[in-house]
Structures are given as structure tokens and as C-alpha cells.
Write a structure and sequence with these properties.
Three copies of one chain form a homotrimer. Chain A has about 280 residues and is α/β, with parallel strands linked by helices. Helix content of chain A is about 45%, strand content about 15%. Chain A has eleven helices and eight strands. Chain A has helices at about 5, 30-45, 90-100, 115-120, 150-170, 175-180, 190-205, 210-220, 225-240, 245-255, 260-265, and strands spanning about 10-15, 15-20, 55-60, 100-105, 110, 125-130, 135, 185. In chain A, strands 1-2-3-4-6-8 form a six-stranded mixed β-sheet, sandwiched between helices. A two-stranded parallel sheet of chain A has the order 5-7. The longest helix of chain A is centred in the middle third of the chain and has 20 residues, at about 150-170. Chains in contact: A-B, A-C, B-C. The interface of A and B includes residues 155, 156, 183 and 184 of A.
């Protein structure tokens, strides 16, 4: 198996129902290899006429998928283009939304920044009540969401809650995320696997043409236009060059990001004191 | 009274407040006669300058309005055009949304498919907590929503929950429907009539011009464009010709749809096993 | 201090975090002077590069900001234009939404009509569970929302709930407002100040460029276009000339509006009997 295939393992539950499991210890950091895994999976999804639904799961209950690698291992995902003609980062999420195959994010643990944008690009999101930590902390790092979060959240949760999520840069637990509409539902951890499995098998029993036509109609009134997604990414690339952003990123890494499990779990809580020890 | 007038009885509570009661035993199936009843009502609504509000109610607490007749009695509602120039099915719902008269759906029991699309075309929806079963089960029958459900739901509940409703093809109870925004509120059955009656009489006491102007402003930012509604209907007509859809419809009828009250109550629960006994 | 500066006092908590306090006894009625206070504040906000966030608060826990002055003291806010080229009423709200500075409404007490439209133009809204009375009662006065309520509410709460709020013309308490998405959250009164203060100080610690870029991206997919806001205002000005509206306004003033504290607190409850004593 390639490195990417190891990081995103595909389990064929039935020909119509796959599970894709993020498994990149220790934190399921999102780097170029993880995006390659998603691109490979999208190619397999496109090629398989039996497939109806993919559930995105994590091998690590503390870190569903944590956040962008901030040590530089993101390769060319913002510059090289994918099959849609959009940069890989945007291409991956746009193709997921437009795929005739249904995508379901089953969430436990930390899901921040680009990872939140990944679950927002899934067709549905179900989260554990007990330990979900979902958020867009970019503004607290001197940046802003660049992978669709700013475009998808307002349609799901309204402008006021989208601004609270994006400008407050805090974690949202499962209950609040469900009340806001950030996720479809929050369920007790013990019920989450069963609920999602029943839903996925049910969808897997339906006809591919019916699923594709229904999803396409919903998409027409609910997806953000590609030019807005591109503008956000371009703006994000500019923000990465801002000295204040670089300073905050360095402060986070110095404090333990991507090294210390305790800090990795709770880092959005310190964003308002990040520059105090300069 | 005509057959249609019997199926949709109009009770004039006051000159400004009418109740329209679905009363087509045993299940309040939606057929051509029911649409004729709605068209006749819309003509009466248009012609009466005293009217402010119509509450849509059901004579059958188990079946508010069940679903499209699947035995062929839907006449020409998808081909003949109504006063708006749109096919009768779309015309009925579009004229209801644009009417200067306010429409309120008071929901008890089963409301599936085209019936869900009817309540989505009403200005407001209030549901009983105890026995509401609301859903868009079309995909589970090899079809997809064709009467506006795919266009109206994402604006009300967001893309993720709209896809769960449409692709999952399950019933939603009153509490979940209210949490999702599918209905305005779910109330205990014993309080539902009182709540809706107070609201309807209140609106009925207001000025027609003020109501019409306010609704028109809200409509401008909230109604789906007619071309999207038409595209969904055209796609639905194509789907009706798909062999897999016809096979699923026949399986449903064979199992008891439109005949057996118990099956009629719970048929979405069996959609994932529909073709197993082939 | 000018009259306007007295009515909208600015408290500089830190260079990055101000509080603006409505303080126009006895009811915080919205008149031309209050709009002048908001215009002056917007000019100060535009001129200060240190500022990140303004919390809008009230000196009166019963009346956050009550409603438009109905005795004629609204000056030329609908005809004279502001810096954006839009009429002052629309200009004030549009500039607040587009400002690089974050605005947070911290709500206790009555917030009706144009005051509801003010909080809808703030970036976020947090309300006390115990005594919030939020609403758009214009239709019950023979008018309709003219300051953006009809354009902003459907995007926040969906068409059905927006029509319930606008056509029902009733007050909404904090809990219902939060369930509908009318406010971000409703918190116990004892927790409201602390929650908002922590959020405001957190945002105040972030970089101005990051905040501005993030808000701008969210705005692009969530703000109503200026022409729709203008159309609503024009329609509202016409409605003010309707005899039925003038009659209802006079009936309200006669019953105690803007004079009697008890009536001022509960006037939407009598809107359905307003013309009975003619």
C-alpha cells in the first residue's frame, strides 16, 4: 500500500457501502499525503458503478482529522490543479460534493480548520455528543478559512452563527454544533456507529440513478459557486504571507502543536493569549 | 358539491379566516381530484378580498395527506398548465407561495412525498409532537422529489439535513422536524389546535395590504426560481419511466400500499428491503 | 457631549474592544438622534485602526432598544443619504454589516421593529433567556418591516419561521429566538455578560486583517443585496401613507405607546384587538 492508502484506509463493507478511515498517527494531521489519499479515493469512487455511499470515519477517537500541517508538508495542493481544473484543495471538496456517491462524516474528537471544511463538504455530518471539538480556528492564528468554510457555514447555520464560529475561533461541542446546524445530529457515542451504519446501509439499498438525481437537484440550490471558493483560497494564500500569521503559527508550534497530545487537544483555548509571551 | 370540493372541504371560520380540510378516506391520497380541489380553492382565495389566512387541516389524524396516488389516478397535473403557465403540480404550489393570503399547515399524521412538498409550499408549518410522520421517501422508491421538496428543503434546513431527509427517505417525527427547521414548531397534540387558531385569528385581524407587502418582500429572498422547480418536475417525469422505479412502485403496491392501513402508516420503514423478495 | 452621544454612550474597555450603550430614557425609542449616534459611532469605528469589536448593550434592562418613534421624530433618516449613498436608515445597517469591526448585540428586554432590524444587522446576537422580547410587529400596525428585517430573517431562520415572525407580529422570547436562529444563543441573564465579554475580548486579541478578511468572505455569501434593502424601504415609506396604518398607529399612541411603561412592555399582545374600540 502507498503511504496515502495507509493514511486513508478503505473498508469495503458491501459493494455499495464503503468506509474510509483516517489513520495517520498520532493526530491525523492533514498534509499532502492525506489529500492524495482523498484524491485516490475520489478516483475509485468515480470508477465504481456499484458504490452508493462512503462513511468517513477515524481510527483515532480523539482526532477525527485534526488540521492543516503547519510545518510545511502540504505540498502543492493549493497550486496544482485536480481533475475539475480547480486547485487540489478546492477540487477535492468540490468533487466530493458533486459526486453521485453519498458521503457521510461520522465524527468523534477534534475536527478543526481544513478538517472542518472537509466535513462541511460531506453530504451529511453526525457527531458524538461526548467528545466532538469542531471549529474554524484560523482567525485566531492570523488567517481565515480558505477551503470553503466561510462559504458553506452561512448556508448551514446562518450569518450570525457562521461569524461566531469563524471570528470566535473556538471549538464547538456536538450539542452546540447540532443546535446550530453545523452537524446534522449529535448522538451519544454509544449510538453513533449504529445510527450511521443503519443510514448508510439504507442508502446503499437504493438505486444509484435516484440518489444521483436527488443529490444533483439539492446541489443546484445549495452549493457555493466555484469562483467564491477560489477567491477564498487565493485570499488564504495571501494571508499565509502575513507576518502576524507567521508569528502566531510559530508561537503555536513552539507551544506544542503537532507534538504534544494535550496541547493538540486544546490549542484553540489558548488562541487569545498566543502572543502574550512574545 | 363536486368530488373535489368534498375532498377539500372549506370551512369559513370568519370572512378573513378559512379552514381547508383534507377529507378523502381512507388515506387522503393525493390524486388529480385533490389537486383540482386545491386549484378551486386557489381561485376562491384569489377572488375574495376579505380573506387573510387559510389553515390546512385534515379530517384524518393518522393521514394528514399521504402521498401521490401510485395507481395512476394523477390525471394530467404534470402536463396541463395552470393559470401561472406552469404545470398544474408546480402551479398549485407556486401560486400558494405567492398568494397575498397566508397559508398555514396544521399537521397530524403521515405527510410524505408530494404531501411534504405541499406543506413546504405553505407559508408556515406546525406539527403535533405525538404522531407526525413527515418525509420525502421518493429516493427509496427509485424516484426523487419532483414537486419542490429538493428546492425548498435546503433553504429551510441546510444542505446536510436536506440530503439526510431526501437520500435517507425516512420519516421525521415532529420533534426532529422542528429541530431541523422542517416545520416551524412541534406542539403537544392537545395544544396544536389552540396555538394555530390563535395565530390564524391574529393574522386575520391585520390589514390585507400589510400582509401582502410583507409576504412579497420575504418571498423575494426565499422562494426558489420557477426554472429550478420546472427542472425538478421534468427530471421526476423521466424518473417515472425508469424500470427500477416501476419495480419498486409495484413492490410497494403488492405489499399493501393504498390498501392496508398498517402498511400505509409505516411503509418508509421497509424501503431498504423492498426488492429483497423479488 | 451631544444629545446623540448621550443616547449612545461609548465605553472604551480596551483600544480593541468598545461597548456602546443605548441610554435614552425612558424606553430607548429609536429616533433621529439615535440614528445620529449610530452614524457618529460608525465614523469613529472607521477611523480607529486599533478597534476589533463593539458590543451593543443597553442601560435599560427592560428596553434594549424599543422601536421607531411613532410621534414623528425620525427626521430625514429615510430620505437623506449616508456615506454609502444609501438612505441613512439603510446606510447605518449596511455599513455595520460591512465594517471590518465586529458587532455583537447583547440583548435584554424589548427589541421590536427597527430595533430587531438593528440587531439583525449586527454580526452576532446573544439574548437573555429571562426577559428577551424580540419581534417584527410592523404588520400588526398596518405596515411591514422596512429596515432589512424581511431580507435578513429568511436567511437566518428560513422562510417559514420568517413569515411566522413577520406576519404573526408577536414577541419571541430568548429560548424560541435561539431555537429559530433569530439569535445565536440565549443564555441565563446571570451568564450573559460574562459570555459576551469573554467572546469580545477573545476577538479583540486577534489580528485586524484576519478578522476583516474572514468577515468579508462570509458577507459575500450571506448579505442581502442593496437593491432589495432599498426596495423594502421604499415600500415601507408608501405603507406609512396608508390610512389603515395611520389609524393603527394613532390607536397605539392613544392606548399608551411611548407613554405608559406597562403598555410599552406588552403592546404587541393587543395588536389583534387594536381597531375594536374604534
Amino acid at each position: 500500500m502507498t503511504d496515502s492508502a495507509l493514511r486513508l484506509r478503505v473498508i469495503v463493507e458491501t459493494p455499495a457501502y464503503w468506509r474510509a478511515v483516517f489513520d495517520s498517527p498520532p493526530f491525523n494531521i492533514v498534509d499532502a499525503a492525506m489529500f492524495q489519499g482523498l484524491q485516490d479515493l475520489l478516483a475509485r469512487m468515480d470508477a465504481d458503478p456499484s458504490l452508493r455511499v462512503v462513511v468517513f470515519d477515524s481510527a483515532n477517537p480523539e482526532f477525527y482529522l485534526s488540521h492543516f500541517d503547519l510545518t510545511g508538508k502540504i505540498g502543492n495542493i493549493m497550486t496544482a490543479v485536480g481533475p475539475s481544473g480547480l486547485p487540489i484543495l478546492v477540487d477535492t471538496f468540490v468533487r466530493l460534493t458533486k459526486s453521485p456517491v453519498v458521503s457521510i462524516a461520522k465524527i468523534r474528537g477534534c475536527v478543526r480548520g481544513v478538517s472542518s471544511e472537509f466535513v462541511l463538504a460531506c453530504d451529511m455530518r453526525f457527531a458524538a455528543l461526548e467528545n466532538t471539538r469542531l471549529g474554524q480556528p484560523e482567525v485566531g492564528v492570523g488567517l481565515h478559512p480558505g477551503g470553503g468554510g466561510a462559504e458553506r457555514l452561512p448556508r448551514l447555520v446562518g450569518r450570525g452563527r457562521a461569524l461566531e464560529i469563524v471570528l470566535g475561533a473556538s471549538d464547538f461541542d456536538g450539542d452546540t454544533a447540532a443546535r446550530y446546524g453545523y452537524v446534522n445530529r449529535a448522538l451519544p457515542d454509544a449510538e453513533l456507529d449504529g445510527f450511521v451504519d443503519v443510514l448508510a446501509r439504507r442508502i446503499a439499498s437504493f438505486d444509484r440513478r435516484a440518489i444521483a438525481a436527488a443529490k444533483s437537484l439539492v446541489n443546484q440550490v445549495s452549493l457555493p459557486p466555484a469562483d467564491q471558493l477560489l477567491e477564498a483560497l487565493t485570499s488564504f494564500q495571501t494571508a499565509l504571507t502575513w507576518p502576524e500569521a507567521q508569528q502566531r503559527v510559530q508561537a503555536l508550534l513552539k507551544r506544542g502543536l503537532q507534538r504534544d497530545v494535550d496541547f493538540e487537544n486544546r490549542w484553540p483555548t489558548v488562541l487569545d493569549t498566543l502572543l502574550e509571551t512574545r
